[in-house]
């Protein structure tokens, strides 16, 4: 695999990786913090659990947004020059996956705002 | 044509006839989901039929990139993004404990419900069975557990189910909005007579509730006439008191339902039979026939006269 392909594949999977990171951190943090009795502890004025969920969500959301912009650019470029079928497939897939990852990360963050931390 | 399906929707045991806070949230969730899903199903089916039967040039738009992006991606994303907070807000607001709630304890046993009202202020504590009496307008917290196997406590008109698990206490919170009689059921298979494990829920005006509570805390009435006194003696001689309490008498068994005020209940046998002398006598003589597997023996050898006296005595325990 050439370096270019590796980059393309990473771009394609990037959003999902961001989502996986968010998923792991918020689930692990929620169960650990709640299990240790940190339900009411606060950080910068909001509950630690909420703080963790919100900050993780914002960071991974930003990552997915950047990946989406990059993949949209690549896809647009690809439209104006002749590219191989594989390239065009990877470009379109990246846009789709990064876009969906963005939404999914948002969906995973929302319960952190609405529901009580450890109930 | 609607009469048949809709007839089952209102009434004493229906999630579609809410009578208290949470039940309304669940009701609207059901309506939104059912109606929404039906509309989308019809739309998709129509499009499918269109795709199959219309001439190729007319259905071409269905296969365009734009249709796929708007119909296949944007539409579900928008719908799910609306449903997610709606569901989460419902989850947050349902079953929240309220301060100053009336506390009641319910214990599931094969195949009946032990119900306790802890002391509150002047009001002494007492037990009853197979009946939950509540005042309207006041938040209520029912703490539930089980004595033997897992049961589940469910009053459809008042909200969701809550499991009764041995060794664990779960809480169920609700407020009754209007007076009436409702029916709760066991919603977790618990043995042979699971299907005959129900209870009455009676929502009363606060003043009536207070009167009921004072009355329930009293010891049992003394038999007023010789026939009833004979019933009481037979009850004693029959050993009923080894399983049943009748407060104020020497009957102090804890195994079965408290019978101190059994005559004041609407039903017997965990919501199975109307409460009158006939059904009481039938129950005593024939439990194992009418509720096989219930943990009470049939007393089939009593004479008709003795049965009537005993049933009359129980019926007089208002
Ligand atoms: Cu049961």
Spell out the key features of this protein:
heterodimer, A: 119 residues, mainly alpha, two-stranded antiparallel ribbon, 3 helices, 2 strands, B: 318 residues, Immunoglobulin-like, 3 domains, 8 helices, 19% strand, disordered N terminus, binds copper (II) ion
Helicity range of the residues of chain A? over 70%
Content of β-strand of chain B: 15-25%
Bound molecules: copper (II) ion
CATH uppermost class of the largest domain in chain B: Mainly Beta
How much of the sequence lies in strands of chain A comes to under 5%
- What is the 3D form of chain A? elongated
Structural class of chain B: alpha+beta
Q: Overall mean pLDDT score of chain B?
A: 91
Number of strands of chain B: 12
Query: Ranges of chain B with pLDDT <50 over ≥5 residues?
Result: 1-7
Oligomer: heterodimer
What Rg of chain A is obtained from the alpha carbons, in whole angstroms? Answer: 18 Å
Fourth-tier CATH superfamily name of the largest domain in chain B:
Cupredoxins -  blue copper proteins
| CATH-derived topology of the largest domain in chain B | Immunoglobulin-like
Q: Biggest sheet of chain A, strands in spatial order?
A: 1-2
pLDDT below 50 for ≥5 consecutive residues: which ranges of chain A? none
Radius of gyration of chain B equals 26 Å
Q: What is the ordering of alpha helices and beta strands of chain A?
A: HEEHH
Dominant shape of chain B: elongated
């Amino acid at each position: 695999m050439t370096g270019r392909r590796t980059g393309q594949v990473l771009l394609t999977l990037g959003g999902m990786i961001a989502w996986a990171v968010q998923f792991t951190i918020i689930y692990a943090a929620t169960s650990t913090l709640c299990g240790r009795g940190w339900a009411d502890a606060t950080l910068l004025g909001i509950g630690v659990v909420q703080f963790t969920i919100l900050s993780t969500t914002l960071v991974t959301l930003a990552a997915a947004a950047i990946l989406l912009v990059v993949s949209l650019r690549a896809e647009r470029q690809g439209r104006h020059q002749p590219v191989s079928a594989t390239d065009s497939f990877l470009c379109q897939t990246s846009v789709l996956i990064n876009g969906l990852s963005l939404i999914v990360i948002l969906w995973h963050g929302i319960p952190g705002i609405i529901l009580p931390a450890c109930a | 044509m609607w009469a048949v399906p809709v007839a089952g929707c209102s009434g004493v045991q229906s999630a579609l006839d809410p009578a208290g806070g949470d039940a309304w949230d669940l009701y609207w969730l059901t309506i939104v989901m059912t109606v929404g899903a039906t509309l989308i199903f019809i739309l998709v089916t129509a499009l499918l039929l269109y795709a199959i039967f219309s001439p190729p040039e007319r259905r071409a738009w269905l296969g365009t990139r734009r249709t796929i992006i708007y119909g296949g991606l944007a539409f579900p994303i928008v719908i799910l993004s609306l449903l997610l907070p709606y569901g989460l807000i419902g989850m947050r607001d349902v079953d929240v404990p309220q301060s100053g709630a009336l506390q009641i304890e319910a214990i599931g046993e094969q195949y009946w419900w032990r119900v306790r009202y802890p002391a509150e202020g002047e009001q002494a504590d007492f037990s009853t069975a197979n009946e939950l009496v509540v005042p309207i307008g006041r938040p209520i917290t029912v703490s539930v557990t089980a004595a033997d196997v897992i049961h589940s406590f469910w009053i459809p008109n008042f909200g969701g189910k809550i499991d009764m698990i041995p060794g664990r206490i779960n809480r169920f919170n609700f407020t009754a909005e209007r007076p009436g009689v409702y029916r709760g059921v066991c919603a977790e298979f618990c043995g042979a007579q699971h299907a005959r494990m129900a209870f009455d829920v009676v929502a009363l005006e606060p003043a009536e509730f207070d009167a009921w509570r004072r009355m329930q805390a009293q010891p049992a009435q003394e038999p007023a006439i010789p026939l009833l006194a004979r019933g009481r003696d037979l009850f004693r001689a029959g050993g009923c008191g080894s399983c049943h309490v009748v407060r104020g008498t020497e009957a102090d068994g804890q195994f079965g339902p408290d019978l101190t005020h059994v005559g004041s209940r609407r039903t017997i046998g965990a919501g199975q039979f109307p409460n009158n002398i006939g059904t009481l006598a039938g129950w005593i003589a024939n439990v194992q026939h009418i509720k096989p597997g219930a943990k009470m023996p049939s007393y089939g050898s009593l004479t008709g006269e003795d049965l009537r006296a005993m049933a009359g005595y129980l019926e007089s325990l208002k």
